[in-house]
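testing teh design pipeline on a random one, pls ignore if ur not involved
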């Protein structure tokens, strides 16, 4: 009878028992099943959007404004050009407001405000704002900038409402990503004599950029699909407008108005607009991923 060698003892020590193998198989199947269940609604939504929305897509759909002539079958109902441009303009302005402020607050919380009652208060109110319904932001801007000033609806007021909606999402996501940056990177740069601000801008932010891009995209996607804040701030117009100081159309408001119409053609336009909105978010995600990948390789 041969005596066990050191290698045999090592293999026996790290051997996986049949019971653990069964548990691992059960866990893997459970995770796979949960993933499939989570994907089912997403696949159904995409399929339904494609089946309903692709039929409305044509050249005129993207190059004409909605005319509103829906009571006669032979009249053209127009497209969604004003809604597309209005959404891009208002979301772009909202992002220009919310992203720098949100990233700045996150940098302060991580780099300078790790402790203290003020930092804890900021985190608490950011968490509260994350769960506030979007209509509340629209009502706030409506009361302050429309009723309070006695002025009319405007595209920039819709952008302000959307920026308030985006701000807590940007702050929390950026803070989480900045906390994942290894402390050794900061300490190495500081040990070499680099000032704190230069460490943040040259090392911390570039390292966290890919993750922060994902958080910003989540905020942009949420803002681009909101209807309630824009109903109280930017209202709607059927004409294409580049004036952020006046009424401005948007895809969510266009969809909201069209889907309740008794005319089939207008309802189909709503489905086409919904598919367009999803496609815009998809393209934005692809572009941002490409930018973040190039910045990571640079």
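output:
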């Amino acid at each position: 009878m041969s005596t066990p060698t050191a290698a045999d003892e090592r293999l026996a020590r790290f051997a996986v028992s049949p019971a653990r193998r069964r548990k691992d198989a059960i866990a893997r199947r459970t995770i796979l099943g949960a993933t499939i269940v989570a994907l089912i609604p997403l696949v159904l939504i995409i399929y339904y959007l494609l089946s309903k929305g692709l039929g409305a897509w044509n050249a005129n759909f993207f190059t004409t404004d909605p005319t509103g002539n829906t009571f006669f079958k032979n009249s053209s109902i127009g497209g969604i050009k004003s809604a597309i441009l209005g959404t891009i303009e208002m979301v772009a302005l909202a992002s220009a407001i919310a992203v720098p402020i949100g990233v700045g607050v996150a940098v302060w919380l991580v780099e300078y405000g790790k402790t203290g009652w003020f930092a804890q208060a900021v985190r608490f109110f950011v968490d509260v704002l994350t769960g506030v319904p979007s209509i509340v932001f629209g009502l706030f801007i409506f009361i302050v900038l429309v009723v309070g000033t006695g002025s009319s609806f405007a595209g920039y007021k819709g952008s302000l409402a959307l920026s308030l909606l985006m701000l807590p999402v940007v702050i929390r996501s950026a803070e989480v990503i900045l906390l994942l940056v290894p402390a050794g990177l900061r300490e190495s740069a500081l040990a070499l004599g680099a000032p704190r601000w230069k460490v943040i801008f040259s090392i911390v932010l570039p390292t966290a950029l890919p993750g922060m891009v994902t958080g910003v995209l989540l905020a942009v996607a949420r803002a681009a699909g909101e209807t309630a804040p824009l109903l109280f701030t930017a209202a709607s117009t059927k004409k294409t407008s580049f004036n952020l100081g006046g009424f401005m159309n948007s895809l969510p408001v266009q969809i909201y108005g069209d889907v309740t119409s008794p005319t089939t053609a207008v309802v189909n336009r709503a489905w086409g607009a919904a598919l367009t909105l999803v496609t815009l978010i998809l393209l934005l995600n692809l572009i941002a991923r490409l930018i973040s990948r190039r910045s990571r390789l640079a």
